[in-house]
Specification:
This protein has five helices and six strands. The chain has 160 residues and is an alpha/beta fold.
């Protein structure tokens, strides 16, 4: 199984979270420069469109990218505080041929001061009719602790 993980704007996939993901499959985690590349989503699509991606996972800006790439690859997504409504750096949204995505799990921090969970819920409500599970973690801010990451990843893969 191949997992595509997309990091956030000012972060990378750390070793501990990568180890969690590697329990479920091989991890592809490209290093993305969102600041200088407004076409990062399209770039990732071009890099991996010929590979057998099974799942797309992302956090914050990577959650934004994962949402759109999940549609492009028609694969289930796991999104942590995805920056779907507002982003501090511009990103172009390519038009992909696949208009829908598979199952999705969205994890939102109730104390997130970077990505407003209410905005995300409104956006997803307008975009999607069914097929997504929403997990509001009241104690969580924008950053996802290793403990929460592990719990949410486990639940995501148990559902599959």
């Amino acid at each position: 199984m191949i997992l595509l993980y997309l990091h956030g704007l000012e972060s990378k996939l750390n070793a501990a979270k990568k180890a969690v993901l590697e329990q479920y499959g091989s991890v592809l985690a490209p290093d993305l420069d969102y600041h200088n590349n407004p076409d990062a989503v399209q770039q990732v699509y071009e890099m991996y469109k010929g590979q057998p991606i099974d799942y797309v996972i992302g956090s914050s800006m990577g959650g934004f990218a994962a949402f759109h790439l999940g549609r492009a690859f028609d694969k289930p997504v796991l999104l942590f505080n995805p920056a779907l409504v507002k982003r501090s750096v511009p990103q172009n949204i390519p038009t992909f041929k696949t208009p829908t995505s598979g199952f999705g799990q969205v994890v939102l921090g109730g104390k997130d001061s970077v990505v407003d969970p209410a905005d995300t819920l409104r956006f997803l409500g307008d975009q999607l009719k069914a097929g997504f599970d929403y997990h509001l973690r009241a104690e969580m801010g924008h950053r996802t602790s290793l403990e929460v990451f592990e719990e949410e990843v486990q639940e995501f893969f148990e559902y599959q």
